[in-house]
Sequence to fold (444 residues):
Amino acid sequence: MSNNNSDGGFVEKHLMPIAVKLSVFKPLVAIRDGIIVAMPLIIIGSLFLILGSFPVEAWTNWLENTVINGVSIADVFTKITNGSFGLLGLIGCFGVASSYSEQHNTDGKSAGVIAVAAFFIVTPSIFTGGETPLEGMPYDYLGSQGLFIAIVIGLISGGIFQWFINHDIRIKMPEAVPPAVSSSFSALIPGAVVISLFGAIYAIFAWADWGNIHELIMNVLSGPLSLLADTLPGTIIAVMLNSLFWFVGIHGANVINNIILPVWLMNTDANRQLFAEGNLDLEHGHIITQPFIDNFVFMGGGGATLGLVIAVAILVAMRKASKQMKTLAPLTVTPGIFNINEPTMFGMPIVLNMSLIIPFILAPVVNAITTYTAMSLELVPLSTGAVVPWTMPPILSGFLATSSVAGAVLQGVNLIIDILIYLPFVSTFNKQLRLEEAGELTEE
Fold:
């Protein structure tokens, strides 16, 4: 163990600078924070999706058959899901613009409101016929299908807003004016520029008959990103990078997820809509989604460390554990069950520990392969689009994510494999610790 730092020097030297730059790169931070703003709605909407589709026929029949004035309880649950999860793009647009503006020390709320207005301007409307035509917005673009353009608008709007404010190009009010009023007037000039810009973009697309900007962004960005986020090889690369960044002490998810999370969420919401329509299958749905990553690949957190802490607990139960592992076992098992692994990362430690780097990379990669294989062979249903809270313990989360017992069984199989992967490496590391504690391990 004494030479861990030198062994990890190459990784630390070449990966650390990249990871640090990516983790503080303002646009990526804005994307991460913007989506986090929508996360409560995603989870709440997922809860009602689970309740409305719980795999008990008597329950779902009751929801569908309990009708008041033509509206069933199932319809109410669907409305709640659409009104929460279905606003992912819209809320994300506000969050991205707000975060990007605040990182430049300007008013995030005003930037977010302006971005939302720009989002509505470029989003195609739905018109109803009749004597009094009505205009509405499609849930598709307000939700996951609009997430890419929401991110682009959020970054552009936030960037323009902060540039005008920081260059003092704004309407200034006397000091006696309340701050809230003063801020709203300060936002007039940058707001007018942003809204005019996206109004012009809408006009160009409409007059040239190019469709809409959502379709353009999807066609331009979804292809390249899907190669990384919607394929097994790409997912394996993302999982390996996550572990490597964690190894040098950088929160892997903060680097990797900022780039790929929009695609995973779009796939998740696409599955949700298909599931609600009864059309979720391998041909139309997506295997790789946010629940695929959170609930099946990273069980216990980054590196699938629930297998690690259980392997440590096994050594303790066999009375072969070192003093350090005996102390760590009760401190890491309980958080690990709830997918919290910071105590393991920095207490074991895993960071810069060459003794555990191989299983730390290998375990989540194997989880991705087994889960993808099981779903592609239709042994396990695709995730239904419900985003289970990341702290939900395995077995239960697999059942809720797929609405099937097979999902829970798959998690159990993955967990057993993870334990078997970690156990020999943990045993070797434990022997090193015991030698150190006995004063018998000398420096090379």
